[in-house]
Amino acid sequence: MRLLKWISLLLLFALPVVAADSFPKGTKISVRIKTQLNSDSATSGDPFEAVLDHDLVVSGKTLAVEGDTARGRLDMAGPSNGGQTAGTLIIRLTEIETKDAIYNFTTTTYTRQGHGRGGLRNRPSVADTIGGMGHPSNPPDVDIGGSIGKGSGPAALIPPGTLLTFQTTSAAKTEPKNSN
Question: What is the Cα–Cα distance from 138 to 89, expressed in whole angstroms?
Answer without folding.
Answer: 15
